[in-house]
Amino acid sequence: MNLDDLHIFRSVVREGGVTRAANLLHRVPSNVTTRIKQFEERLGVTLFRRQGRSLTLTEAGRTLLSHAEKLLQMADLAEREMRSGGVLRLGSLESAAGARLPPILSAFHAQHPDVTIELQTGTTRALLRLLDRFEVEAAFVSEPFEKGSLSSVPAFDEELVLITAKGGPTIRKAAELRGRTLVAFPHGCSYRQRLIEWLAEGGASPDRVLEMSSYHAIVACVAGGTGAAIVPAEVLDQAVLSTAVERHPVPPHLRVNRTHLVWSGEVSAPLQALMGLLPSAAASEEAIG
Description:
It is built from twelve helices and eleven strands. The chain has helices at 3-15, 18-25, 29-43, 59-82, 94-111, 124-132, 190-201, 215-223, 233-238, 252-255, 269-275, 281-288; strands at residues 48-51, 54-57, 87-92, 116-121, 138-142, 151-165, 181-184, 208-211, 229-232, 245-249, 256-263.
């Protein structure tokens, strides 16, 4: 089976159509359509069914997609391992990338200078999606998350704190946040989910949620009196405006939040080396062994 055909087929599925897949692949749409038709003829099955202007997978198409993902992942892994050192593609929460990973990645580079690390940041949900699509080999995600068939090891714990503008009243109960604006990452952020759950426990709900894409922006908005937010204490300690906000403790069952390193399938040599540098290295060895 031609890997290029599989790549074209998967691109049409992911992009939701021939035109967008052609743009991604730097091909003309007619070429992509022809390749798909030739692929179907060679396999003797129909892979797509047209519904209006959209394409949907047939049962044969769904079966092939499952195999295509695995075959393309194996091909990518083989190519990376054949190259000098290779590339380790990781996903990470912004909090971990900014506060926890720098010393770990620095130690990794010192031990394995021939391996290049590519890092993408996002919410837990977004990172799991990247992992599911084999766009990263492993990701640092936060509880709660759906583990499914993924393998995981605990990486480190984060202490979460509630922050509001300086000079405001002390927040002791979730109900005291009723009607306030919450400043948070977009949907899919585990810390945001924790805060919403705490509010729900107290019978409260925010007036609105202002979505930001970085902790610097979140802390700045809170310092400016926009609303309240929940952030890792380690990240707040390193923020420029850390002294311009008021810290409030959250309940014990929400205060400590664990970050996990998750991956799918076999562990490559670079990933195993990275695991050995985590605070939970013993747990990693146990999980692999």
